[in-house]
Write a structure and sequence with these properties.
32% helix, ATP-dep_AMP-bd_enzyme, ligase, alpha/beta, GMP Synthetase, Chain A, domain 3, o-succinylbenzoate-CoA ligase activity, 5-stranded antiparallel beta sheet, 12 helices
């Protein structure tokens, strides 16, 4: 077994360490965020002082947006397979802009694709547009989370239009945001994947080459060359989610015209007042409101309701208007019991909504 080295989670440090593990000259590593909370999570999940499992090049820590962070073991072959399949889907290798942290899989894989393509990645500093102008490759790519796309559509539209493709992942892309990007002439490609799949492995509902998708009672199953090797020092958890080569995700999906559509998480259906409520459906309805900029709908334990449905809304509508809006197209029993108005949703460094923080503040 190898030993695991911890390195700073900066673009230069991660790019150097990644280059070494891909060419076989360096030991496996785990990138450490700059903030104390992120660093503590890496130490907890990556356990650097313990012997390292075989078939591992990088240990990435999941964001912990909805639970305990885990150390995900990614092999050299999985990282390279993901990069090659991405370039094949996009039309060939290119130069990548890095607007994401490289200690999360989306940012790490931008660096991997750059190394595989033999191009120099360009990190985004204070200005997305200025960084985009530094790209010199014939084909120009980047990847980001939906929140970043929404912000750049407001501030850096011309720069977004200059890319051959922009991969959108890390969270579900709301339909209104997809329409905004399309109408603005931006080539934004929604991707589905996670740390365990070596970043996005399904682009616009179609699996990348080498990836297979299946459904088991609505639960999404993934098989292919980009899958992780297991969870760090968690053999029981690994055995639970990796079965016969298939990764059992926590997401629900369906096939529409041959394409995968992700409809939510397995735990997104809650029982509130004896009624099954699909939280993602309520959330999608709220995002259609003309004065709602962003929204998340969560369930919280409640003595009266069993689970209380709470809408966290960035925008003007108050409780009664939110409930009426939901009830226009969905059952009245699905309308949120509580509505919390916010100036912005709290985000993790990964670009995902900090659900734990929302629920803690709602108590």
């Amino acid at each position: 077994m190898s030993t695991l080295r911890l390195i700073p989670g900066t673009p230069d440090a991660v790019l150097s360490a990644l280059s070494e593990v891909l060419d076989g000259s360096g030991a496996p590593f785990a990138p450490v965020p700059e903030d104390a909370v992120g660093a503590a999570r890496v130490h907890q999940a990556a356990a650097p002082d313990e012997p390292l499992e075989d078939d591992c090049a990088v240990v990435l820590t999941t964001s912990g947006s909805s639970g305990e962070p885990k150390g995900v073991l990614l092999s050299r072959d999985a990282l390279i397979s993901s990069a090659v399949a991405t370039h094949d889907r996009l039309g060939g290798p290119g130069q990548w802009l890095l607007p994401m942290k490289p200690y999360f899989v989306g940012g790490l894989q931008i660096l991997t694709r750059s190394l595989v393509a033999g191009t120099t990645p360009v990190p985004v500093g204070d200005s997305f547009t200025a960084a985009a102008r530094r790209l010199t490759g014939d084909r120009r790519y980047t990847a980001m989370v939906p929140t970043q796309l929404a912000r750049y559509l407001e501030t850096d539209l011309e720069a977004l239009r200059s890319f051959d493709a922009i991969i959108i992942g890390g969270a579900s892309t709301p339909e209104p945001l997809k329409r905004r990007a399309r109408e603005a002439g931006v080539t934004a490609i929604p991707a589905y994947g996670m740390t365990e799949t070596g970043s996005g492995c399904v682009y616009d509902g179609v699996p990348l080459d080498g990836t297979s998708i299946d459904l088991d009672g609505g639960r999404i199953l993934i098989k292919g060359s980009t899958l992780f090797s297991g969870y760090r020092l968690r053999p029981e958890l690994t055995a639970d989610v990796l079965r016969d080569g298939w990764f059992r995700t926590q997401d629900r999906g369906e096939f529409v015209d041959g394409r995968l559509r992700v409809v939510g998480r397995v735990d997104d259906v809650v029982i509130s007042g004896g009624v099954n409520v699909t939280l993602t459906t309520v959330q999608a309805r709220l995002l259609e409101h003309p004065r709602v900029k962003d929204a998340v709908v969560l369930g919280a334990p409640d003595a009266e309701w069993g689970t209380r449905v709470i809408a966290f809304v960035v925008g003007e509508p108050a409780r009664d208007e939110v409930r009426d809006w939901v009830s226009e197209t969905l059952p009245r029993t699905w309308a949120p019991q509580d509505v919390v108005q916010l100036e912005a949703l709290p985000m993790l460094a990964s670009g995902k909504v900090d659900r734990q923080r929302l629920l803690e503040n709602a108590r």
